[in-house]
Amino acid sequence: MVDERAAEIDALVGRSRRVLGHLLDRADSELAHTRARVVALSPAATLERGYAVLQRPDGHVVRAPEDAGAPGDVLRARVSGGEFAVRVSE
Question: What does the pLDDT look like over 27-45, one tens digit per residue?
Answer without folding.
Answer: 999 999 999 999 989 988 9
